[in-house]
Amino acid sequence: MSFRNVYQDSQRAEAYATLEFARTYHLAFRDLPDLLARHARGNRALDFGCGSGRSTRFLKSQGFKAVGVDIASEMLAIARQRDPEGEYYLVPEGDLGPAARATFNVVLSAFPFDNIPSRAVKLRILQGLHAVLVSGGILINLVSSPDIYLHEWASFSTRDFVEENRKARSGGVVRIVTTDMPDARPCDDILFPEGDYRVLHTDAGFETLEVAKPLACGDEGWAWGVEDRVAPWHLHVLRR
User: Fold this and answer.
1) Which of 63, 68, 191, 228 is the most buried (most CB within 10 A)?
2) At what angle do helices 119-132 and 194-203 cross, to 10 degrees?
3) Which contiguous run of DSSP H or E holds residue 126?
4) Separation of CA 4 from chain center
């Protein structure tokens, strides 16, 4: 099965680029500064699957010299428009392109593994990311929790797909709608539970330092779905 990215679509790319750090997405990024402060050494960072550059700009705001790579030219065009001085590279599917010739202290992968359907391709990419990290470097693999496909959220809806999502097994397709952006088409993701990620990360040569599962505190000022009791994201913090 090929490495597929649903954001290789100009309409979806433009819609996705409107998202910032609000509601459910706030929880994806809220704990990153603390995780980076505790585990990262050095300031050279790679944003794998950078999309429209939201996560790359986030890394820069934390003091990192960040390079972004992605397979979607539609997304990279927006990233370069919003950050003209930034380094953003189009890479082949399952490859790191020019970034493969560099070394980094930190790799952030925010969501792309949700859209990589094959375990074999996931493993190959992780091995490539392992190779570009310095000794002791870290990878933060931010992925969707399997629970995200079973509930209603501040930023997502699965009500039209929850029964079929519930029947999905590891490696199967699950569907979800992002309600925070002006494109209501469902996204096909790949279900991959925490335990499978832990084994995959070990097979790629990583040590798991922690898995953060952020919950809403209730004082953020947004109306939550189940975010205050069910974690929508898993942040796997891994060391080379």
Assistant:
1) 68
2) 50
3) helix 119-132
4) 14
Prediction pTM value:
0.94
Instruction: Compute the distance between CA of residue 161 and CA of residue 173 in angstroms, rounded to an integer.
Output: 11
Measured between alpha carbons, how far is 53 from 88 in angstroms, rounded to an integer?
A: 8
The model's pLDDT over 171-190, given as tens digits with 9 standing for 90+, comes to: 999 999 999 998 889 999 99
Cα(14)–Cα(3) distance, integer angstroms: 21
Question: How many whole angstroms separate alpha carbon 136 and alpha carbon 104?
Answer: 10
Burial degree of 86 (CB within 10 A; 0-12, 13-18, 19+): middle
Sheet of strand 173-178, all strands in order from the earlier edge strand to the far edge: 156-157, 173-178, 187-190
Q: How far apart are CA 144 and CA 111, in angstroms?
A: 7
- Round to whole Å and give the CA distance between 232 and 27: 8
Nearest to 140 by CA among 235, 54, 213: 235
Each residue's pLDDT tens digit, 103-144: 999 999 999 999 998 999 999 999 999 999 999 999 999 999
Alpha-carbon distance 139 to 126, whole Å? 9
Question: CB neighbours of 200 closer than 8 A, spacing ≥ 6?
Answer: 119, 122, 123, 126, 192
Q: Which two tokens stand for residue 141?
A: 């693999």
Question: What span, in angstroms and rounded, lies between the C-alpha atoms of 11 and 102?
Answer: 33
